[in-house]
Amino acid sequence: GEGEGAEGEGEGAEGEGEGEGAEGEGEGAEGEGEGAEGEGEGSPPRCGACPDDGRTYIDVQGRVNILHHGSGGPAAEVHLAAAEHWDSFSEASPEVIQSTSAIQAEGYGFELCCLDVTERPEGIAVILDDRPPDGPAGTHFPTSTLVATRNPQAQWVDVAGALPRSLTTTLVSELSALVEVDLTESNFVMGVVVNDQGQPVSGVTVVDTNGMNNGRFVYPSSDFTTLGESTALHGLWLVPHSPGLGDYIVQSRTSTQQPASGLPGRCVFVVLQLE
């Protein structure tokens, strides 16, 4: 791989313990990837040397953060497929660059070694699903999260703390009932606001600088039973049906806009880190 870290990555899982001050006090909502579902003693082995063939490779290592709520729980194993970020939210069947799996017994740790990012300027996303992938059926709902981008110097570097999200179908069903939209068939975008320590931030709102999705944001309460005017303790926000491409930010508190649009049968998950 080439170097370490990547901008905007490596943040902690939302809902894992207590946040700091007004930006994350209190326990995370049930089912936010904590405990046995998101942690563990195991960790993936280190990647070896990549080919010296003139192409650009990076290593992406991390763990899956599973968001669930209510009855049932996550599966013992999840499937990860790396794809170009833009394709992950615009193509029903994006080209898979590399795939692997993560298992509960190892804390859902994973590694994507020598990931070929040559001529992939839009970044790399990971799409999570059941193993084998089964679309909206099964335990996990297909969820795409950006995990790697070029740094401010336009260089690709390794990612040591990627944290892609995976929504369970149980949570998607609860959210569908809450917003009165069948999210399994809609173009929905979901995200979380975190601070520089990766802890969820409450009391903030998200905007789309493109303007297309403004007025469509909803903020589930910590127990997913009501909607509020801003993020709850888990920091989550949702656009139940996105009509098109949005550039998401927290006004005056994030400098990096993250583009995303919805795709039926897949959740596009956006992590917004405050500065």
Largest sheet: 7 strands, mixed
How are the strands of the biggest sheet laid out side by side?
4-3-6-8-18-11-15
Shape: globular
Number of helices: 2
> How many beta-strand runs?
18
Mean pLDDT: 83
- Unreliably modeled segments: 2-42
Q: What does the radius of gyration come to?
A: 17 Å
Structural class: mainly beta
Helix amount, in percent?
A: under 10%
Portion in strands:
25-35%
What assembly state would you assign to the polypeptide chains in this entry?
single chain
Q: Helix-strand pattern, N to C?
A: EEEHEEEEEEEHEEEEEEEE
Q: State the end-to-end distance.
A: 28 Å
Nutshell version of this structure?
By secondary structure, the protein is mainly beta.
Overview of this structure, please?
With 275 residues, the protein is mainly beta. The protein has helices at 85-90, 169-179; strands at residues 57-63, 65-67, 77-84, 98-103, 109-116, 124-130, 140-141, 143-148, 159-162, 165-168, 189-194, 207-208, 219-220, 227-228, 236-239, 246-249, 258-260, 267-273. It has a 7-stranded mixed β-sheet with strand order 4-3-6-8-18-11-15. A 3-stranded mixed β-sheet has the order 5-1-9, with no helix packed on it. Strands 2-10-7 form a 3-stranded mixed β-sheet. A hairpin with a 6-residue loop joins strand 13 and strand 14. It starts with 56 loop residues before the first strand and ends with a strand. Residues 2-42 have low confidence and may be disordered.
